TrEMBL record:
InterPro entries: BHMT-like (IPR017226), HCY_dom (IPR003726), HCY_dom_sf (IPR036589), Hcy_S-methyltransferase (IPR051486). Residues 299-318 are annotated as: Disordered. This is Homocysteine S-methyltransferase. Its cofactor is Zn(2+). It comes from the Bacteria. GO terms for biological process: methionine biosynthetic process; methylation; S-methylmethionine cycle. NCBIfam families: PRK09485.1. Its EC number is 2.1.1.10. SUPFAM superfamilies: Homocysteine S-methyltransferase. It comes from Streptomyces subrutilus. Keywords: Metal-binding, Methyltransferase, Transferase, Zinc.
Amino acid sequence: MTRASGPLAEALGRGAVLLDGGLSNQLAAQGCDLSGDLWTARVLAERPEQVAAAHSAYARAGARVLTTAAYQVGYEAFAARGFDRAATTGLLRRSVRLAARVADAAPHPVWVAASVGPYGAVLADGSEYRGRYGLSVRRLADFHRPRIEALLAEGPDVLALETVPDPDEAEALLLVLAETGAAAWLGYTVADGRTRSGAPLDEAFALAARSPQVVAVGVNCCDPAQVLPALEAAASVTAKPLLAYPNDGSVWDAATATWHPPAAPSPPWPLADWYRAGARLLGGCCRVTPADIARLGGRLPPAGPGAASGPRLGAAGK
């Protein structure tokens, strides 16, 4: 039993790597209360053992990457909810430690990805599915910088810059990433062949193509039907490994804080097509369960040998 010791980027050069699925749905299945604006961060603060249990469920399902519970943790919003700066920093760092503890005990090599959700996620009003917050790139970078610094202090293997709706926010995240020297993947949330803010996909993906620290780029938390066109758009502007971890096709209703399920069950995802398009990080997002991840893992092309060899990838300077 050992934590993955080789850089995730090296493993992506050898084949597909299986991600985990939705943290919120697994916590709900474990009986956790996700009501209120804090969402999964409420469980992170009040019942951290349940977060570890959720990570363990995905590790048992075969996930090779565990994504932390930091998605919705941010300093300004949490200050309004009674968390001082030290407490918020503690939550961010705790999220990495919990995932790392499970990764260390897993029966197969597992990487830890520190989740960096978009500005809209911290607002808890669904605006990550709209973007265009009216903030400058500099202001967005100032928002994300302390979150990223706190996460990197615990030495995750990679940052998951995820559910990004807007190229402006991606630019801000990549600006902070360049300051740290850390590695990351970048996932946009998309709809109708564009980012959620309406930007062309080729322009959005080109930002990541220019960053040497981005180990993979693609889409997450979108309808599975949106994945293949988005991967093809990404492949047209970058040779980087691609990523795909959609939700189950449901639509989030921010007004009622509920998911509206798809009109018809989603067919089995075309993983072979996604893989041929360049996807090497494959998994699920909201409403994708450990059982779903186990089934996905059974259909992935096998990675090449030596996925756990080589120097460990950690925070900047390590």
